[in-house]
Amino acid sequence: MNTLIVLRHAKAAHVPGLADRERPLTGRGERDAGRAGRTLRSLGLSPDLVLCSPSLRTRQTAELALADLAPSAPLHLESEIYEAYPDELLELIGRTDEDVSTLLLVGHNPGVHELVLNLSLSHDDEGFPPGAFAVLETDGWAGLGPGDGRVVHRWRPKDD
User: Fold this and answer.
1) CATH of domain 2-159
2) Region annotation Disordered: residue ranges (predicted)?
3) Domain spans of the chain?
4) Mean pLDDT of successive 10-residue segments in the chain (160 residues)?
5) Cβ atoms of residues 145 and 90 within 8 Å
6) Are the C-beta atoms of residues 109 and 8 closer than 8 Å to each other?
7) Quick check: pTM over 0.90?
């Protein structure tokens, strides 16, 4: 059984004139990213590999979450995560080595939310706000598709 953690970047600032990829986290976003990492640790999770969008807000989210969760976990910046559709995220996840038992994907909406809905065949309307994560169990990485994941935990910053 493999574990996929899907984490949306935490709350980012809207700075006039700043490119979207360079938007930093707000103070609240920084706190929420750290809380996400601590919550994942409290669930007994620790990623073997982190796949992260190269945007500033996703990198900051990953770094802050990993600080208390798994500071030595390999972090790979994957440009295809930025603005990715669920099928593109599934293709990227499918290339993960089978030796990786727990994978953390840090990305953007709507792609990450739709990925969770697709894998779990869920039609929830809870949303996936900044800083939210879902933990899914799968039978492997290769060939993942609709219904191949089971959500075992969801968290949103406002849940605490």
Assistant:
1) 3.40.50.1240
2) 17-37
3) 2-159
4) 98 95 98 98 97 98 96 96 96 96 98 96 85 97 94 92
5) yes
6) yes
7) yes
